[in-house]
Amino acid sequence: METVLIKALQLLCCLSLLVVLHEGGHFGFAKLFGVKVEKFFMFFDYKFKLFSTKSKWFTRLFPRFKNNETEYGIGWIPLGGYVKIAGMIDESMDTEQMKQPAQPDEFRSKPVWQRFFIMFGGVLMNLITAWVIYSLVLLAWGRDYIPMTSIEKGFQYNEQARSIGFQNGDIPISADGKEIAEFSLGPVIRTISNASTVTVLRNGEEVELQMPEDGLSMLQMMQAQPQFLTPLADSFIKEVAPNSAADKAGIKAGMKLIAVNGKDIYTWGDFDNEVTLRRQDVLASPDCTAADSLHWRTLNVVVASADMTQTDTLSLQLDEQYMMGVTRHIPDYKVEHLDYNLANCIPAGLDYGWKMLKNYVSDLKYVASAEGAKSVGSFITIGNIFPATWDWQQFWMLTALISIILAVMNILPIPGLDGGHIVLLGYEAITGHAPSDKAMEWIERIGLFLILALMLLGFGNDFVRFVFPLFGL
């Protein structure tokens, strides 16, 4: 329960900050161009407000806010926020104002270029926020990375990778002629998936591999079990979770798995291969009963003592997620550290942010696929990426990433989002006239429907991923 609360608090702090800054971008440009802003709310206030500067008790304490043209407040639905700008049809669906003659301080009275900056201000603020956060994180903590050359034993590859030409022990060192200098699973897989050729170091010699002409799906590579590539690591057990499948079987920290069901095991990759095959057999059987599942989850394992002088054969029953409940011993790879000063952290933060932006935009193509649709998540997924303990460096890095995600999502040409409004402004700039108020109403409704459908998809996926398993579904 404590873990859930810590993750939820980090998510709330992150979204609160980013919503205020995003809406502040719209607000700032509106004020710059003399446009009246009627409301500035963090979270949505449908029928109810948690706080408002127009409330009686607040105006009694601070009388100067009574006649302020902008109402600042906090709503009760934590799904975003908004600024209500006079003279435009937005998610508030206030059409009565549009029936009145246009006023000089309204959005619709301003030239297209000013309205563009007002609408783009939120996205711009999100991008600037990510840049500033990345720069300050580099200044405060520097950056740690694992050089690819420190993975001395190389990697173990799954069946898909071996069918392309990878061999266990290979170390990817370049893709399309560009060096792969650092090891981080996600970036390395992304690089390989987008490459035409990959050069690996094999037994001290460079070998060039041709990638499939139709490319590789990064999403499938990331979700593959066993993984496309994983560092070669002997199957030593570092820790055993209390009451886990391994603990109940009598497995202790320091032991090494040396065989599963009569098959020799040398690395954790070997173990993953064996478990994956058994799990696939269960999934492929539509008539599989609970007894069948238990049979496939039961393993006869041979373990060796830490000094490899004694062996024992144990019966191990994996849990329903096919996990044994151990922490794997991973070699202590050499980690390099880079420090930054005020002068070089700014360009480095910009470069890092640009890479993250390009990667996220590139990954959007998977959303239209069946696998991509299943990967869409709600706030449950976002909250789950935060660490279980409060780590300020991780918090700020994830906040910067989510800021980039919000920027990209808002610039999509979907009615109701900033990108949708910008597309309509482009139409007005080209044709010389704006869509009618009636058309704008329908466009806004369609946009709200699409956004709601996407949210429902995300919540549905999260229920399947996180809630159903709690009830054994």
Structure description:
With 473 residues, this protein is an alpha+beta fold. Helix content is 46%, strand content 20%. It contains 15 helices and 17 strands. It has helices spanning 2-32, 56-61, 112-141, 159-164, 185-193, 218-223, 245-249, 268-283, 290-297, 342-363, 370-375, 379-384, 392-411, 418-431, 437-467, and strands at 37-52, 71-85, 143-147, 155-157, 171-175, 178-179, 182-183, 197-202, 205-210, 229-231, 237-240, 256-260, 263-264, 298-304, 311-317, 326-328, 336-338. Strands 6-5-8-9 form a four-stranded antiparallel β-sheet, with no helix packed on it. Strands 13-12-14-15 form a four-stranded antiparallel β-sheet. Helix 1 (2-32) packs across helix 13 and helix 3 runs antiparallel to helix 13. The radius of gyration is 27 Å and the shape is elongated. The two termini are 21 Å apart.
What is the first-to-last residue Cα distance? 21 Å
Strand order of the largest sheet: 6-5-8-9
**Number of DSSP helical runs:** 15
Helical percentage: 40-55%
Rounded average pLDDT: 83
- Could you tell me the number of beta strands? 17
Overall radius of gyration: 27 Å
From the structure above, extract its key features.
473 residues; alpha+beta; four-stranded antiparallel β-sheet; 17 strands; elongated; disordered C terminus
